[in-house]
Amino acid sequence: MQSTRRNLPQLLGDARRWFEEGLSAAMQAAGATPVSPTQAWLFAVLDDQGTTVSELARRMGVTRQTAHQAVHSLLAAGLVEQVQDPASARQRLIRRTEEGVRAHRQAGIVLERLEEQLAERIGREAVDALRAALEAPWGRPPSPSSQ
């Protein structure tokens, strides 16, 4: 018989989707430009001064092509812009537009409210323990030889 116990990555994925869906619904209700979870993740890892597409892809754990597609759609929505990298004539930086800064700030407020709602549902101690566990240094993933 197959176990019904879900593994930790599945549970973490569900938790992430809970926040993504709550964020998306709240932002849509506020009249913000709709964005996909990938676009929202790109926005979250974007530096204020700008970030290259290659670095965005690395931070997101996706291919450069996936990051480029997300950037392209956010450019079209007017939430980010491309600017010349002052450190390199060959590179362009992606950074938030004024509208993007406003949307990012609004999303931060929504995420704080979602965390408070979660604390009301599962308890402040559980949320604090979850945060502490996720913020703790886990080190590099084990190598195949150590498993």
Protein architecture, described:
- The chain has a two-stranded antiparallel ribbon with strand order 1-2.
- α1 (8-29) crosses α5 (98-122), α3 (53-60) packs across α4 (64-76) and α5 (98-122) crosses α6.
- By secondary structure, the protein is mostly helical.
- It has one domain: Winged helix-like DNA-binding domain superfamily/Winged helix DNA-binding domain (Arc Repressor Mutant, subunit A, Orthogonal Bundle), CATH 1.10.10.10.
- The protein is globular.
- The two termini are 25 Å apart.
- Helices cover 61% and strands 7% of the residues.
- The protein has helices at 8-29, 37-45, 53-60, 64-76, 98-122, 124-135, and strands at 80-84, 92-96.
- A hairpin with a 7-residue loop joins β1 (80-84) and β2 (92-96).
- The chain is built from 6 helices and 2 strands.
